[in-house]
Amino acid sequence: MATVRTSIHGYWSSRFVFVLAAAGSAVGLGNIWKFPYIAGENGGGAFVLLYLLCIALFGIPVMMSEVLLGRRGRSSPVNTMTTLAAEEKRTKAWRLLGVLGVLAGFLILSYYSVIAGWALAYVVETATGTFSGVTGEKAGEVFTNLISNPQRLLFWHTVFIVLTMLVVVRGVSGGLEKAVRILMPALFILIIIMIGYAMLNGNFMEGLKFLFTPDFSKLNPEVVLKAMGQAFFSLSLGMGAIMMYGSYLPDDASIATTSFQVAMADTLVAILAGLAIFPIVFANGLEASQGPGLIFNTLPLAFGQMSGGLLFGTIFFILLVFAAWTSAISLIEPAVAWLIERFSISRFISSMICGVVVWVIGLGTVYSFNSWEKIEVFNGTFLENKSFFDLLDYLTSNIMLPLGGLLICIFAAWSMTEKSRREELKIKHEGAYKVWRFLARYITPIGVILIFLHVLGILEKLNLVT
Question: Does the residue 6 lie in any domain?
């Protein structure tokens, strides 16, 4: 008989809502520019196929494992791992996996909020006509003036944190669920509107070619590692958010089916974003491989020169805000839930504490782009030449998330008993269960370790990749 636990925080009303919420957690600022750019530069359609393979081999098994742990424990990641370690008669040290996830999400939100604040600022800049007929030099000045002004960054950072906490403070059904029911459909609608605009005003065929023309000659070990890393990071794995959302998943929902649906929704948004952005880029003779600069320097220039650019530029930056917003509420939810469980305080007080602490840590990122730009930390170590923002980004993305994903797979596929795994996964087809177990036990951990070594530069030092 399966172990029955209940969540004190509430539940999603349906599997569909969980898919919306988890997809909202996965879809973020990176989906809007990073995936399309990486795909186009590394084989187009060939990279897309490789990425989908990596999603199947690495992303979905880790997601299933994380949701499995979350639903089994029915509490914050810290208490979930404490409970499951005791249940499976494993060392108490496994609770540190929960701590790692909560801390990673907390730190990521502290700088993510500042970057999301840029998008908020650009909604206003675009809507008020700042970019109408603007030159390339002027568009660059607008961005430079924004990030060099700590007061403006602080204002928009504060606004975004307040928006996030207004959702989180209302709980699972009253806040998180209502938000994703509105924001995720709205996000898809905005992307479709932008694609329609790109078809009419951009070089749509060139955008399709950039994203989907397969060039298998560009596939090499380096590109494979990029696809593996993108598949892992784009799904918000290893940061406690999916484990927390899994704890709210109804018992009768299929973990395998929902994980697959979340992965496909995340991938679909990334591809659709590429179809919305790159036709506009190519129609204006702009460079596609600029990362954040593409969004905050180049695209405003394009919108400023195009018919209807003021309206559709504003819609685009609202789209960015929505993508960031759905991610942000998932990043802070594990910490909020843990404080409620640990100190028996109200969700309001817990949310306020977490919001204030994230806001304070975010000040380091605010000043990293201006007043503290030349202040570096840990000089004389492998972390030298990194600002406060660079340090947080490096530690979370390159160390904490891959480590968290690896440990999640190890616990779910090795430390849990066969009985516990089968009870929670409820996979009726024996072959499907064995495929998940094999991937989670062997293939996925090897893949995550390779990602880990790659992002740390160890594979390059060993001359295994160029």
Answer: no
CATH number at residue 240: 1.20.1740
Q: Would you say 52 and 78 are in contact if contact means Cβ atoms under 8 Å apart?
A: no
What is the chain's pLDDT, residue by residue, as a tens digit (466 residues)? 456 799 999 999 999 999 999 999 999 887 887 888 888 888 889 999 999 999 999 999 999 999 999 999 999 999 999 999 999 999 999 999 999 999 999 999 999 999 999 999 999 999 999 999 888 788 889 999 999 999 999 999 999 999 999 999 999 999 999 999 999 999 999 999 999 999 998 999 999 998 888 989 989 888 988 888 888 888 999 999 999 999 999 999 999 999 999 999 999 999 999 899 889 888 888 777 666 677 888 789 889 888 888 999 999 999 999 999 999 999 999 999 999 999 999 999 999 999 999 999 999 999 998 877 766 666 655 556 678 898 898 889 888 999 999 999 999 999 999 999 999 999 989 999 999 999 999 999 999 898 888 877 787 777 776 6
State how many domains the chain has.
1
Q: Which domain holds residue 48?
A: 15-461
Residue 2 placed within a domain: no
268 within domain boundaries? yes
| DSSP states of 65-128 | HHHHHHHHH-S-HHHHHHHHHHHTT--GGGHHHHHHHHHHHHHHHHHHHHHHHHHHHHHHHHHT
H/E segment holding residue 181: helix 178-201
**Is residue 3 assigned to a domain?**
no
For 419, residues 6+ apart whose C-beta sits below 8 A from its C-beta are none
